[in-house]
Amino acid sequence: MFDPVISSLPAFAGYFATALALLVVFVVLYIFVTPYSELALIRDGNTAAAVSLGGAVVGYALPIAVAVVTSHNIMTMVGWGVVACVVQLLVYVVARLALPQINLAIPQGKVASGIFLASLSLGIGILNAGCIA
């Protein structure tokens, strides 16, 4: 009964560890790209920063999940992970260019800006995930 699960555990562990590593790398890069420290803002109770970063994390995790399902090996999954990372970082850059004041709004705790960035990240993440073949 549990034989298929037990025999699949090594593959699960490999894909899960790789997905987590990709997620950590994305979060580090995202925090590096933004001109404010999301983690410090979140520690201080800034809801806008928490919503914005949370949306970016989920927006990136969606295509990674699809890449796990559709990839026949970990290297293909990593390739799609890199593509998804670039797309999500570009989304932030475009949002920043389109709405330059967003760099001030998030540190000021303006939740509307956080919701906008999160929604943008989620929407693009869903589209990105749907395009993975």
TrEMBL record:
<keyword id="KW-0812">Transmembrane</keyword>
<feature type="transmembrane region" description="Helical">
    <location>
        <begin position="45"/>
        <end position="68"/>
    </location>
</feature>
<dbReference type="InterPro" id="IPR007140">
    <property type="entry name" value="DUF350"/>
</dbReference>
<comment type="similarity">
    <text>Belongs to the UPF0719 family.</text>
</comment>
<feature type="transmembrane region" description="Helical">
    <location>
        <begin position="74"/>
        <end position="99"/>
    </location>
</feature>
<keyword id="KW-1003">Cell membrane</keyword>
<keyword id="KW-1133">Transmembrane helix</keyword>
<feature type="transmembrane region" description="Helical">
    <location>
        <begin position="111"/>
        <end position="130"/>
    </location>
</feature>
<feature type="transmembrane region" description="Helical">
    <location>
        <begin position="12"/>
        <end position="33"/>
    </location>
</feature>
<keyword id="KW-0472">Membrane</keyword>
<protein>
    <submittedName>
        <fullName>DUF350 domain-containing protein</fullName>
    </submittedName>
</protein>
<dbReference type="Pfam" id="PF03994">
    <property type="entry name" value="DUF350"/>
</dbReference>
